[in-house]
TrEMBL record:
Lineage of origin: Bacteria, Bacillati, Actinomycetota, Actinomycetes, Kitasatosporales
TM spans (from-to): 12-31, 65-87, 108-126, 138-157
Keyword terms: Membrane, Transmembrane, Transmembrane helix
Membrane listed as a keyword: yes
InterPro entries: DUF2975
Full protein name: DUF2975 domain-containing protein
Pfam families recorded: DUF2975 (PF11188)
């Protein structure tokens, strides 16, 4: 792995990690804030607006549930980012196809599976309320699909890594047998 590729991936991971921290803080704020109905605010152009919007009602009714599922899901996503960082380091050192990378792949698979479960619970809870528009309920289902796909891809990569390690061990064993014969 080239240094430019590793640095680019790490830069993207740092930005993504910072964004997830920001979203977690926003979720904590949403979970602990109760919007006041009929409150008057001033918009950027100087006109007075009220906070009687549909989004405020959703936050007031479902904000705690969303935060309860989204914050742990984001923590699991951060665990995946840390594992990818470690796998990048292993790849940069030429040790990506060794047993040292198996724990990071296993942790990634488990974190993605947990994230899938949390997002599925959130999607089912949001879709059980028929007053929400379709867009509010489709986003969590899309996130469930994305995280489940990521977990399956990582499971496939782990199986391929196991196979490569086994073949390498077999080649080493055969090489030592050949040295003994010669």
């Amino acid at each position: 792995m080239t240094h430019l590729l590793a640095r680019s991936l790490r830069a993207a991971l740092v930005v993504a990690f910072a964004l997830t921290l920001g979203v977690q803080l926003m979720m904590l704020f949403i979970a602990n804030t109760q919007p006041v109905q009929g409150d008057i605010a001033v918009s950027r152009d100087g006109t007075a607006v009220t906070n009687d919007s549909f989004v405020d009602e959703v936050i007031q009714d479902r904000g705690g549930e969303v935060a309860l599922c989204a914050i742990p899901a984001l923590i699991l996503l951060q665990a995946v980012m840390v594992c990818i960082w470690r796998l990048t380091t292993l790849a940069q050192n030429g040790k990506a196809f060794t047993p040292a990378s198996l724990p990071y792949l296993t942790t990634t698979i488990r974190a993605l599976a947990g994230m899938t479960l949390l997002l599925a619970i959130l999607a089912v809870r949001l879709s059980s309320d028929h007053t929400l528009p379709l867009g509010f309920t489709l986003y969590p289902y899309g996130a469930v699909l994305a995280s489940a796909t990521g977990a399956l891809v990582m499971l496939l990569l782990r199986a391929l890594l196991d196979q490569a390690i086994n073949r390498d061990d077999e080649a080493t064993r055969m090489r030592s047998e050949l040295d003994q014969v010669i």
